[in-house]
Amino acid sequence: MSVATASSAKAAQPEPPALALYQQVKDHIARKIQDGSWKAGDRLPSENELVLQFGISRMTVNRALRELVEQGRIVRVAGVGSFVAEAKPQSTLLQIAHLASEIRQRGHDYACRVLGVGRVAAPMDVAAALDLRLGESVFHAMCVHLENGVPVQLEDRYVSPRMAPGFLQQDFTQVQPSEYLVRNVPFDQAEHVVDAVLPTAEQGRLLEMDATQPCLLLTRRTWSQGTPVTMVRCLHPASRYRLGSRFRADGNPVFG
User: Fold this and answer.
1) Percent of the chain scored above 90 by pLDDT?
2) In CATH, what number does 17-84 get?
């Protein structure tokens, strides 16, 4: 191929499409939040100021702000303005997370309030989930996990005694139940289901939240060589926590 032909071919390459105008506004605001220029609670420029700054229509600016609200990056107060939202800690969804480690990695204080640990008779749903007989003995633990003194998760866990016979002897103020099980009963299958629910009055009291506010309920089961190990229900106040994950096209989670 001649130099002239190569130059012509290069010139014929299509230019990458320009970002949509509303996306430019979104990216500008997101960068300001990401680099710390605008912190949680800071007021954003008004719609009119953004219209003048970018030379675009008010409708376009409104779309950018609306999508940022939907993504949880900003909050809008009618008649007052738009503000940077408080960041919600995000817990991984596709891997078994050590909540204590996640909280400490954010530079925050972690604490576990153990509500009870003992043996109980397996109710119907637990017996079915753990492949036990109805009423068979099963280990049960309830804990509240706190970040900087604020409850972020209510853990209600059932464990098969045949798979983790030493479970009841652990001090769960020092080692999370999930961390103990991952270390001592390696799992090879896990199932996650997430529901949006309202807490009961008791759950609201334990999480120090209004029972009319929604929660995210993560129900997880794990297996080792085809035998159920544990079933746990983790209740998170939706206003304080989010669940998410990142994974490759082959379905494997991205770690690190």
Assistant:
1) 52
2) 1.10.10.10
| Cα dihedral across residues 232, 236, 214, 242: positive or negative | negative
Q: What is the pLDDT of residues 122-139, one digit of tens each?
A: 999 999 999 999 999 999
73 and 30 Cβ atoms separated by less than 8 Å: yes
Single out the residue of 148, 158, 106, 107 nearest to residue 128, CA to CA. 158
Specify the fold of 90-244: Chorismate lyase (3.40.1410)
For the chain, the structural domain boundaries read 17-84, 90-244
H or E stretch covering 149:
none
Over 84-118, what HEC string results? ECCCCCEEECCCCCCHHHHHHHCCCCEEEEEEEEE
What pTM value is reported for the model? 0.62
CA distance 178 to 198: 24
Residue 159 or 192, more confident: 159
Rounded to the nearest angstrom, the gap between the alpha carbon of residue 198 and the centroid of all alpha carbons in its chain is: 17
What does the alpha-carbon distance between residue 84 and residue 194 come to, in Å, rounded to a whole number? Answer: 27
Q: How far apart are CA 121 and CA 8, in angstroms?
A: 78
User: Which residues on neighbouring strands pair with residue 227, listed in sequence order?
Assistant: 224
pLDDT tens profile 53-72: 999 999 999 999 988 887 77
Instruction: List C-alpha distances in Å: 35 to 39, 139, 256.
Output: 9, 46, 21
Q: Which long-range contacts (CB under 8 A, 24 or more apart) does 117-121 make?
A: 117/141, 117/142, 117/168, 117/172, 118/168, 119/161, 119/168
Do 53 and 45 form a contact (C-beta atoms < 8 A)? yes
Give 215's pLDDT tier (boundaries 50, 70, 90): very high
Give residue-wise pLDDT tens across range 76-95: 877 788 999 876 554 544 45
